[in-house]
Amino acid sequence: MQIHIFTLFPQMCVGPFGESIIARAVARGLLTIHLHQFRDYTHDRHHTVDDAQYGGGPGMVLKPEPLFEAVESVVGAPPSCPVVLLTPQGKVFSQAHAKRLSAQPAIALICGHYGGVDERIREHLATEELSIGDYVLSGGELAAMVVVDAVARLVPGVLGDEESAGEDSHATGILQHPLYTRPAQFRDWPVPDVLLSGDHQAVAKWRRRQALLRTLARRPDLLENAALTDEERRWLEEGKARFCSP
Ligand code: 6GU
């Protein structure tokens, strides 16, 4: 997969992509990450990328010309791939977005900055807008890196068998079950007996129940769309009685 990032601060992305799973995927040729400085696509002496907003008011606005020229020269017009604008006004990024984007041969990410971007960038250059949550970041770079990480780990071959994404929180639509490793007894806290039992069916059932109860306690919103068996619904009813009793 080819990933193009359009940013005024390409150096911000160098460290995070040079480590761990992403760096290994790049080294193996599963992923190429291209950082594009869109200031290089200006033609005035001062390399101007922003300007005051029409109508007055504080904050600078990213001009359309450098970003249009940068993105169009790399991915074409109309674009050959999704062009994602990272902005706090976008849809909140989720595992479903990550999955969809990971199936693309290429994606382009535009990092907004300053007070915002000219509306024509949203309307006529970006094909979608994503936010990574309801808080304010100084720019889209950290958000782009979050999106790249979540997308890249779903590209076939990027994760080894040991790291398989199948049971991660959100991969299944609910939160992950509790995890334990050695020692079986640490201070006063033993590992649950069932995990030491060798009974794979009992382990699977315990994990599913723990995952559901944890999701009920922490993120009940995720259960609204979950496909549940009758037994699983019973576990949740019992859980509700326990959490919600006066
Ligand atoms: Cl994508 N950009 C900025 N500037 N702030 C954010 C964000 C993006 N997502 C959450 N907060």
What features would you highlight for this structure?
Trp Operon Repressor, Chain A, 2 domains, 246 residues, 18% strand, binds 6-chloroguanine, 37% helix, three-stranded mixed β-sheet, Alpha/beta knot
CATH class of the largest domain: Alpha Beta
Strand content: 15-25%
CATH superfamily assignment of the largest domain?
A: SPOUT methyltransferase, trefoil knot domain
Largest sheet: 5 strands, parallel
Rounded to the nearest angstrom, the radius of gyration is: 23 Å
Overall pLDDT = 95
| Regions with little confidence, pLDDT below 50 for 5+ residues | none
Distance between the termini: 53 Å
**What is the helix/strand order?**
EHHEEEHEHEEHEHEEHHH
Major sheet: order of its strands?
Answer: 2-1-6-5-8
Overall geometry comes to elongated
- Class per helix and strand makeup: alpha/beta
Stated plainly, the CATH topology of the largest domain is called Alpha/beta knot
Bound small molecules, by name, code or SMILES, are: 6-chloroguanine
Give the % helix. 25-40%
The total beta strand count reads 10
Number of domains: 2
Number of helices: 9
Describe this structure in words.
The structure is a single chain. With 246 residues, the chain is α/β, with parallel strands linked by helices. It has two domains: 2-152, Alpha/beta knot; 172-244, Trp Operon Repressor, Chain A. Helices cover 37% and strands 18% of the residues. It has nine helices and ten strands. It has helices spanning 11-17, 20-27, 64-75, 95-102, 119-124, 141-152, 193-196, 200-218, 230-244, and strands at 2-7, 32-37, 50-52, 60-62, 83-92, 106-111, 116-117, 128-131, 185-186, 189-190. The strands form three sheets. It has a five-stranded parallel beta sheet with strand order 2-1-6-5-8. Strands 3-4-7 form a three-stranded mixed beta sheet. Strand 9 (185-186) and strand 10 form a beta hairpin. The radius of gyration is 23 Å and the shape is elongated. Bound molecules: 6-chloroguanine.
